[in-house]
Amino acid sequence: MKRIVDEHYFTYSAYSALTPGIQVKCPRCRGLGMVTADKGKACFRCLSCGHQMTRDRMVYRYNVHNQCKNCGRYYRVDIEDETKQRFPALHVACPYCGTAMSGEVHKTAQKCFSYDAEIQDGKEPWFGLELWFLDAFQGKPVWALNREHLAYLIRYLSADLREKPPGILRKTQADHLPTFMKTAKNRDRIVKLLKKMQER
Ligand SMILES: [Zn+2]
Ligand SMILES: [Zn+2]
Prior knowledge:
Bound molecules: zinc ion
Shape: elongated
């Protein structure tokens, strides 16, 4: 009988996978690339064509705050338009009375992008690149962040007995898995699909 003790909830999250790296498809050559990150930056590097990208993990917020010279109220208007964010000052309308006047554009560091980022539509959250290990089962995406994560999924789903890891955390890695992957009737076919992915 195959037995597995499940991993903790964050072991294979999009965030923790940044240390070993998330394996993705290069947008230029479709070859294998890696997304990694440190505190300040996320990096993409293609292992076949050498294409590279970086992005600042800090997210900034731009706004103008003013006291309206018509109605006297204080207001703050967020500047969402990226082309306008570059200007030192902008004309904005008072949200209360509509009087437009010029105000200084303030830039504030909002948060570090992003500790709670999730995989969506088989794409990693930093550059929106498609995962290397991605397939579909009955129209639903089946994916792994990297080779270690893929091996875990196979180990977990092919075990006969699954146990929670010791400790106080109630959520485990398996809580990330959608029900269709864990359902007994699909499990064998999902494992087969995952093993096929391993050949990539
Ligand atoms: Zn490439
Ligand atoms: Zn006003």
